[in-house]
């Protein structure tokens, strides 16, 4: 027999034998499986409420599961003698022996020590008890209690150290300006934002339901980010999958939006009387007779004597906002996943509004355990931000609303739009699509992948590498077309015939822009984490490089033959235009950290980053930024445990960090050139001329911040009462400023910026928390206080100015105003008080600061207040009882003032507050000056403190009241959990401004107002 056939026959016989054996021994595996069991159970808290998301792990194995929304878990193929470990943030972990039990229910006690929690820090996490830096964090679940769809509007009051100002509620343009511990530089004060480990922009538009946590690094903890850390760092981590069966969560919110505050303007009767007074002050005859003024008030002739409320004519009472969110999460020991999609819609507050914002977002976060030594992470996030505006800006529309005279028709009684205020501006029309549209679609793609490899032959050694590719595409289109407004043909014609008139542009105009921004980032880290008895060491060294490329293209055409043709190629060739720009940026960094602690009692951290930025010349391009911090947990010492038992936890810590700021205009070390609008004619062609943009400074270097911080952390009464306090000091040097103020203007010199500025910023933060359970009632109270105030130590000042006008020693941007000290009651008071020549009774009195008996520019004072608050307060109240829960956030701000003065007079209307208690000859003790015409009066045209409003406020920032449907009812319909709730944002505001919202931007009230939100929502988990 052929040997090959013999081998095949032998294998066949063996296979048949094994098959028969398996068949004959079928019961054997069942007997073997009896050694392993399936365990089921439920996890609750002390009040009997189910705990979702509890990690249930089989000790010394990778096997595990997570409880569902009803607190249930299932573990299969578990040994009878296994030990289960139950872990949940904020609760004491427990180990329970199975001893053959297949059903195991557990009640977890809320931890009176939250020190085992981890906080996210730069390039890693740290145990809360071992952190030595000033790091504050907030969970994504807390941010989701706010119905505001913009993440930047949900942080203030919740995170100590965060100061935020919201100047607008316009959909798609409602970001808050955020400062970490205030302002410390004369230049860019924006903090660095890091999303899932990579610096990125646009965090305001992240789907809030995807956020796991937000951490804010405020001192040496931020030094690991080197040249971009001086203004603080905000770290955002998005959600990841957890071990357990697939869980689907759907949420829906329907919101009803209205302005927090609109100014109440004078009615027609009041305005007509004020106009007569203005004319009288100017020596002009009265414009309106008493009979005409009466007609404005009684409404007998709405065609000729209307009483128009322009805000009511153009602004809706209620606008709609809604959002849908759907997520899927789960996984096993090999693969974890979190996937979500979301959509939201915001309508503007104009009637027939052209102002709308739509957003669609998608996210997929995957974690794979290839084997015991290799793990992979993959994140993909994308969103479309679709903004639609009228071609007229919000500022232009609200300028028209402020100036709209109540004695003129916004809308004629027959429903047609009235005449314009000027330049075609009638806000009833310009807030709609009747004048065209502006559409801005921003496509954002964020991707990153990471690999973590444990080196098996060296305990604690691992290497990880990550790569991020971020792409942004922005498509902008603006099409403006003529619109029609109507005027009375003849005021004496009883038929009230109206003449239509074309306004705005003479022919349709179209602008189209395309912008692309690409950012690539990669890094490699070598990590070593090891414990040697009571010694714990965590270190890493890393390399990172980032590049950015931006390209823009724009084109313009006009003379379209129809307003239905909004394509670029259909416009006329005359006066068409196009343009394009490009920019590149590169960074290269080397950095590392050493963290050491002994018995989690003596704590030390050291960070160092060696950064390179293209903004600086060769030889000055690289900078070293160290940070060091230390802590001592005194409560771990025997002497403390024996003597101070009431304080169960007490830690002191101190930190110093040196950080940079490279957010400056690039290439200042080079002579840069641009094209002028004019040029030189060569032949029949116009050739653009080149001119120098700036004088170079080849010595330009890093702006450096030295940050100092001292803090304490304490827990009392079993951590039912906790306290954290920090004192901080920042000294910023090498700030770029020019010496232009000290160089006479007649020289015509344009000086380069130099590293000569110095600023100091100091303050403190306090956080006090109390929580307790009274039977089934659980409550928590958290109060936060942040105080940060800066002062300029040195910069270029105009020489020989009086001390009271110098900005050195004052806050950044402290304004220079005349000091208003009252209102002249009569001519005698004018005569006996230093005054300007044109002063008269009813005018505002300016202080004679230098005491020379006259009022001039030397009497201006530097007011040490700005629009940025120096105090931020937060008070959060949480309570749960049975299936009900409530959260209330009160937030306040202090130390800020804002210059607000409307364009009122013959040009337009007054806020009613300006004129209802104005000075007249019969009301000489008035709280407001006499009627004025725009800036004709000296006390209007010359900026003074009368118009510098104290904008301190307290708001009911967030209110959330929810009800969780009982578990038995949910199970009946196949649900894990169902929560219905009502919530609100900016529901109440207490302040001294009254006319406008206290966060109004500086100017004349021409801004899209902040919004108040009433919301109903539902969240269901399957």
Radius of gyration: 34 Å
Q: In CATH, what is the class of the domain at 118-248? A: Mainly Beta
CATH topology of the domain at 118-248: Ferric Hydroxamate Uptake Protein, Chain A, domain 1
What is the approximate shape? globular
Number of beta-strand segments? 49
Helix content: under 10%
What does this structure look like?
With 1022 residues, this protein is mainly beta. Among the domains are: 37-107, Immunoglobulin-like; 118-248, TonB-dependent receptor, plug domain (Ferric Hydroxamate Uptake Protein, Chain A, domain 1). 10% of the residues lie in helices and 47% in strands. Helix 4 packs antiparallel against helix 5. The two termini are 66 Å apart.
Write the layout of secondary structure elements.
Layout: H1 3-24, H2 27-33, E1 36-45, E2 55-58, E3 64-66, E4 72-79, E5 83-87, E6 94-97, E7 106-108, E8 118-121, E9 124-127, E10 135-139, H3 140-143, E11 162-166, E12 176-180, E13 192-195, E14 198-199, E15 211-217, E16 233-238, E17 244-259, H4 268-281, H5 290-298, H6 310-314, E18 319-331, E19 335-347, E20 356-369, E21 374-389, H7 394-403, H8 427-430, E22 436-454, E23 461-480, E24 483-488, E25 498-503, E26 509-532, E27 535-558, E28 577-598, E29 602-613, E30 622-633, H9 638-643, E31 647-661, E32 672-682, E33 685-694, E34 703-716, E35 721-737, E36 754-774, E37 777-794, E38 816-818, E39 820-823, H10 827-831, E40 844-846, E41 860-862, E42 871-881, E43 884-894, E44 897-899, H11 912-915, H12 938-941, E45 948-950, E46 953-964, H13 967-972, E47 977-985, E48 989-991, E49 1011-1021
Parallel strand pairs: 1-7, 13-16
Antiparallel strand pairs: 1-4, 2-3, 2-5, 5-6, 8-9, 10-15, 11-12, 13-14, 15-16, 17-18, 17-49, 18-19, 19-20, 20-21, 21-22, 22-23, 23-26, 24-25, 26-27, 27-28, 28-29, 29-30, 30-31, 31-34, 32-33, 34-35, 35-36, 36-37, 37-42, 38-41, 39-40, 42-43, 43-46, 44-45, 46-47, 46-48, 47-49
Helix pairs in contact: 4-5
